[in-house]
Design a protein that fits this description.
Elements (H helix, E strand, L loop, with lengths): L2 E4 L2 E9 L3 E5 L6 H5 L11 E5 L16 H10 L5 E6 L1 H12 L4 E7 L8 H16 L1 H12 L2 H7 L1 H4 L8 H10 L13 E6 L7 H10 L4 E5 L5 H4 L1 H12 L3
Parallel strand pairs: 3-4, 3-5, 5-6, 6-7, 7-8
Antiparallel strand pairs: 1-2, 2-4
Pfam families: Abhydrolase_6
Protein name: 3-oxoadipate enol-lactone hydrolase/4-carboxymuconolactone decarboxylase
GO molecular function: hydrolase activity
Length: 252
């Protein structure tokens, strides 16, 4: 796995394919492999696909203490050198939005999936705080909570809860969730100038779809699409989300 030094330590990232860059930014409690490995072949025929791990995930440098969006966005930016398309999922959508607002010269097109602007309602806060408490204290319940809030009921029923249950929380999960609870990018979203597609999921029980709709409303000129999926749309609807991204990034 290639590395680059940023902020005093190594940032690990994957790289596949050829052509202009496409950077895929993972979400809380995941990493480049668990979120995107199955999707990379669907883009590698037309893009150089770059999949960074940020602090708290994989082997990327983690300085300890509270995580910040500044650190994560800087680590992602360090993984690519030329203007690229940027896709972010969940916390990755927040990181990607920050990067697009503050480093517009790096971002050609932007796709934000299942993101949020700030801790706007008690439903989102309750879900995140419960997730954090289980990650810290109850591994068995943490493993069950993932399928419960991460996927739609129909998908869990068709696949089986056992196949979807996570193991022990990755080491950085708790601090990433704590960052989720502090997110507030409302002042950044109106500054985004890259063509942007926002994707929401109608059966999202972790980050309800209203948050994606609010993100769309805040990004000037953005487009919006919804999929009939739970939060982890990358695994629940991989063909559909791949098709949406491919169509958007290949427009002339």
């Amino acid at each position: 796995m290639p590395t680059v030094i940023h902020g005093g330590g190594a940032v690990h990232y994957g790289k596949a394919g050829s052509g202009p860059g496409l950077v895929l930014v993972h979400g809380t409690g995941g990493d480049a492999v668990t979120n995107y490995a199955h999707l990379v072949p669907g883009f590698a025929d037309l893009r150089t696909v770059i999949t960074p791990d940020y602090a708290g995930s994989g082997r990327t440098f983690d300085p300890g203490g509270d995580l910040t969006l500044d650190l994560l966005a800087g680590q992602v930016a360090a993984a690519f050198e030329e203007p690229s398309d940027l896709v972010g999922f969940s916390l990755g959508a927040v990181v990607a939005a920050k990067l697009a607002a503050e480093r517009p010269e790096l971002v050609r097109r932007l796709v934000l999936i299942a993101g949020w602007t700030h801790l706007a309602d008690s439903r989102l806060e309750l879900g995140l705080r419960t997730w954090a408490r289980l990650a810290a204290t109850d591994p068995e319940s943490f493993a069950a909570y993932g399928p419960l809030v991460g996927f739609s009921p129909g998908f869990v029923g068709s696949v089986g809860a056992g196949a979807l249950m996570a193991g022990q929380a990755p080491p950085g999960t708790l601090r990433q969730i704590e960052l989720d609870l502090r997110v507030d990018i409302r002042d950044l979203l109106p500054r985004i100038t890259a063509p942007t597609l926002v994707i929401g999921n109608t059966q999202d029980y972790l980050v309800p779809v209203e948050h994606a709709r609010a993100m769309h409303a805040a990004v000037p000129g953005s487009e919006y699409a919804e999929l009939d999926s739970g939060h982890v749309v990358l695994h629940e609807r991989p063909a559909e989300v791949t098709a949406l991204i491919r169509e958007f990034i290949t427009r002339s």
